[in-house]
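Reader question, answered in our methods column.
A reader sent in the components of a multi-part assembly and asked whether the whole thing could be modeled at once rather than chain by chain. We filled in our standard form and ran it. Here is what they sent:
COMPLEX SIZE: three components
ENTRIES:
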Amino acid sequence: METIDKTDKMDRVFQRPEALTKATTHYCPGCGHGVAHRLIAEVLDELGIREQTVGVAPVGCSVLMYNYMNIDMLEAAHGRAPAVATGFKRARPDLTVFCYQGDGDLAAIGMGETIAAAARGEKICVIFVNNATYGMTGGQMAPTTLVGQKTSTSAQGRMSERCGFPIKVAEMLSVLDGPQYIARVSVSSAKYIARAKQAIKKAFEVQQLDLGYSLVEVLSPCPTDWHMTPQQAVNWLEENMLPYYPLGEFKVQGV
Amino acid sequence: MEKLFMTGNEAIAEAAIRSGCLYYFGYPITPQNEIPEYMSTRLPELGGAFLQAESEIAAIYMVYGAAGAGMRVMSSSSSPGISLKQEGLSYIAAAELPCVIVNMMRGGPGLGGIQPSQSDYFQATKGGGHGDYHLFVLAPSTVQEAVSLTGDAFDIADKYRTPVMILGDGIIGQMMEPVEFEQRPRSKEYDKSWALSGAKGRPRNVIKTLYLDPQKLEQHNLKLQDKYQKMKEDVRIEHYLCDDAEIVIAAYGTVARIAKTAVQILRDKGIKVGLLRPITLYPFPYDHFQEIAERIRKVLVVEMSLGQMVEDVKLAVNGKAEVAFYGRTGGIVPSYEEIAAELEKQLF
Amino acid sequence: MKQQQLECAANTAVDSRTLYTNLTMAGFGGQGLMFIGKLLAFSAMKAGLQVSWIPSYGPEMRGGTANCTVVIANEPIASPVIRSPETLIIMNNPSLEAFEPRLKSGGTLFVNSNLVTCPATRKDIEVVAVPADEVAQSAGGRKAANMVMLGAYLAKVAILDKSQIEYGFLEFFGSKAAQTLDLNMKAFSLGAAFSQADCKTKKES
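And here is the structure of the entire assembly that came back:
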């Protein structure tokens, strides 16, 4: 009996990007990291720069990012990704360098490195995943935790009189002269994901054009540490985070 | 060969450049500022990169990044700044990245002072940061020696894929002496296939230090340990008038030079005294001390600290000779008269 | 003149067989003591000698003094750190107070007598009081008082001559220094002449 491979007759419309490995995800159901990884991988494929790109992985839930990305990767200590990326980029200005960092990593322990790299206009891309909590260590309060949001170290909800206010990283960095592209996007649902990819692509294009520093803040759900179902987490993000962290481009130069 | 008149700091910077180091990341701190100042002018001219980082911590991670690209890279600082770099040094050692770090020690603890000191010996030789690791540590005692050890430091770093520390003090850094930059034999080509360069036509490279599986982490640590054992083949020490000595002074760096004058004075008085000067502080020349302990009565360890290297000397001598200690601290530099007087006291 | 210098130098600590000498210079920052220390060491290096130069260290650097120590020898220098120097060049009162007690017995103390108003107290040392500001003024500018002191020192401890210092001055400090070469070398010569006269007077008395 003759078998017919039907796939030969069809157009391939969806496949694993070359910039992703075949590793099975360890991320929780409903987590936004997997989507963010994939968007970066698709952009690297589309720009044709997979083989000229080096990624810097953070400490946090995405510490194992190098298991998923089919590119050269360098693991950084907690908060130090922009410094590691700076050292690498200065040594190899011909390569494309990006950092992938969470909110604790970027906006708490690594805020000094973040601001300094942005102010220098360091020619690196930073993908900043903001899920308003410390995911890996079990849901403690992050610098981006919303006022009133309950975490394992703010059981009554974040109180501004004790813990201050969440940091709006995209807005804050956009007042500096060094950054050339700053945007905030969300991976909570399909319509936002398409726009997120466009922003990530622009961020890499800024580096391709040798213009300077770019950062994309990615709002991302964390159902596990928010103690919600994936759908509840998406809803919570869109109802609570979007009003405080508005989406959009905060600085656009040259792209 | 033309003799130049340079500070130790400048000489180290020039020696690094001549060893192929084109990348430097640092943060200002006394008494080593001449190194970044020198690098800031020279490296851009040579097509390399100098960057004054936002912090000591950022500087050491910039070193980590450039080392990950397979480049010869250096940072320098002084005691409080080196404390800040400890986390990064632990990562660099764990990731097996070659680099050279200079510590021109000043008095501590805390902010301490800006005068010369040797009180970071433990930090330099015993790990400093977290985890089972060591730096390779070289201690020059003249500006000329600082030049040759800087060249060696880069080769050792590449040979073992390990961070190397040049441990000096404020005097070595700021003293001016004649130096000659001899043509070093070209470093051999070290394998750098582990470096990141974009995964072009090869499987991806990953530089990391995370091993969540304890068995894998144990394997990794044993591999590092193996390396530390192999480093013993590069142990170095200077023996000065030790052949007929009944008592020896043990000292490194600046103090060893001062002690050398003390030995000369004591020899003029007919006292059979010698000097043992470890040049590698890690790996420590245990064997040399062990061997000499068989035929001497006593070792007087002299340091600009309240007793750090003396612990390694005691381990090495292992009870076969008496070990005495004399130290000054806080930025006080002992004089040779002081050392000679202390040794005379120790004769009885 | 060279002959005279050497004769005078015979009384100093410099041993012609194994040349070894050291000195500490101290005064206010800006008086150019670091400068003459480096100049002396560099010129001696160019003359084929071993040298070391170290800047202020230790508690002495407090209280408004800047100091440096130079060792010159014809064999490798062990200790660059000298607690009791053979010679002192002192250009302010706090430095006299800090360093006079440490001068080696039988050593020479050069003071700028226009600025050092406190008297030296020790009896076991030779004191050479040079009105260096006045002498420098007559050479064309008070700023060159440091060179007056260096000239006075080298007239006593004849390890280098004027031409070697002039060569060192141009070589080490480059084109900027060349503009002030005449003034500085004139000050140096006047300092040397003052010192020789002093030496002669002491011999005769």
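What stands out: The longest helix of chain C spans residues 181-204. Chain C touches chain B through 22 residues (CB under 8 Å).
Send us your own complexes using the same form.
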